Amino acid sequence: SNDQGDLVVTKGDQYDVRESGSGGVRNLGKPVALAERYYEEGADEVAFLNITAFREVVLEDQPMIDVLRSAAARVFVPLTVGGGIRAYVDKAGKSYSSLEVADAYFRAGADKISIGSDAVEAARAYYARGRTLDGTSSIECISTKYGRQAVVVSVDPRRVYAADPAATGHACVEVGLPGGTPLGPGGERYAWYNCTLKGGREDSGVDVVQLVQAVEAMGAGEILLNCIDRDGQGTGYELELI
User: Sheet holding 112-115: strands in order across?
Assistant: First the structure.
């Protein structure tokens, strides 16, 4: 949503979606109109990711539901929706499970749902329990009902440079190779990828390998792999991350 509460398609610059001059949210158009255009141009899947839903009351006055209904009537390829798929309590004190939120999205026309921050929290709990499942995570509940193919995990990692990979406790990659990711600011030749929450606003301390292994065990069927450092930079994919 922009500052006026309208749902718009925006573009990030390392996940900063505000214009440098005016400070307003970049507005590239209306979600349904752009989805229809992409479909007509040959897109074989469309993903709607609501980057502000983590701080909203998910099912109360949720514009994404209307977007999905409208898009499903015009766009005939799989639709993925993400943002705010988690358990929460509304203003009246009524509790909703993540499965109930997902149910609403599927009824509105979604083929898949995408989970972000809640997946990171679930991975933390998974490792805290010694890599055991308890059947309560959003991923487990939704994949049990709708199937693994219906659950996407959106991963938003940020690069963390390291001089000594053995000292990090994380899966590291070598950087500074020709045509690849540059060396760190202090000449560091290694980096690991710290998964973030809340649209890149918080670091989790969980690395990307830890996260994808945990969510695979929980029942996720697809990974949407992003890279905050490359967002809006026009420098191509972070192949080391992949």
Answer: 46-49, 79-82, 112-115, 151-155, 222-225
Cα 197 to Cα 95, 115, 156: the distances in Å are: 22, 11, 8
Helix, strand or coil for residue 220?
coil
In angstroms, how far is CA 24 from the centroid of its own chain? Answer: 22
Of how many residues is the chain composed?
242
Q: What is the pLDDT along the chain (242 residues), one digit of tens a residue?
A: 444 445 555 444 444 433 455 545 445 568 888 899 999 999 999 999 887 654 555 666 567 788 899 999 999 999 999 888 888 888 888 888 999 999 999 999 999 999 999 999 999 999 999 999 999 999 999 999 999 999 999 999 999 999 999 999 999 999 999 989 999 999 999 999 999 998 888 999 999 999 999 999 999 999 999 999 988 788 889 999 99
Q: Which of 174, 222, 215 is nearest to 195 (CA)?
A: 215
Q: What is the pTM of this model?
A: 0.85
User: Residue 95: beta bridge partners?
Assistant: 89
Count of helix runs (H) and strand runs (E) in the chain: 6, 11
Cβ contacts of 127 within 8 Å, gap of 6 or more: 206, 210, 214
DSSP 18-40: B-TTT-PBP----HHHHHHHHHH
- Number of CB atoms found within 10 A of residue 60's CB: 12
CA dihedral 139, 225, 196, 104 (to 10 degrees): -40
